[in-house]
Specification:
alpha/beta
């Protein structure tokens, strides 16, 4: 759900961002609210049905957070990662603050969010955000450039060197220009 954070930063501080890099993340269109992101989340019902739902404000109130159970985390998030990395990552994974995200108001505008160059890095073996979902996001809101990694949902574990190389290439392409325009 990092797409909400990227969109918020792009909307609030477009003059400070050289490029927004979406790594297997939800990417909304300019002029769109987070409603589309909520709709996309609903499409992946397989993972949603297996989440552990927490009701921090009581059972009669909406859920406050969700967590993918440890027994299925490797399949959804770390499928191509080493067992050691998957195990370490699962120890670090915390409940997703569902209520905070769902209560976040985010309306993007072309003159703010829309001026930030966007790059998308697809993860072709992703079981959390399917390749079809990623392709739909790209089609509905075409970024300036699309890269592809043959990894799971967590390329920072399964292919850190390849991700690092891509991020350097992206920074060299977009941020050098941006940096000189800030002076």
């Amino acid at each position: 759900m990092g797409g909400i954070s990227i969109a918020r930063a792009s909307e609030d501080f477009p003059h400070l961002i050289g490029v927004a890099v979406y790594v297997c993340a939800f990417m909304c269109r300019g002029g769109e609210s987070k409603q589309r992101e909520q709709e996309m989340l609903e499409l992946n019902s397989d993972i949603v049905e297996r989440m552990e739902i927490n009701f921090g404000n009581g059972i009669r109130e909406p859920p406050t957070s969700v967590l993918v159970p440890k027994r299925i985390q490797k399949n959804y998030f770390y499928g191509t990662s080493s067992t050691v990395d998957a195990t370490l990552a699962s120890l670090l994974l915390r409940p997703f603050p569902l209520m905070a995200v769902m209560n976040t108001s985010l309306e993007t505008r072309e003159e703010r969010y829309g001026v930030v160059p966007r790059v998308y890095i697809k993860t072709t073996k992703d079981n959390a955000l399917s390749l079809a979902q990623q392709e739909e996001l790209i089609t509905n809101s075409p970024p300036q450039k699309v890269y592809s990694l043959d990894t799971d949902h967590s390329p920072f574990f399964s292919a850190p060197e390849k991700l690092h190389t891509l991020l350097l290439e992206i920074a060299n392409t977009y941020c050098v220009k941006h940096e000189s325009s800030l002076s």
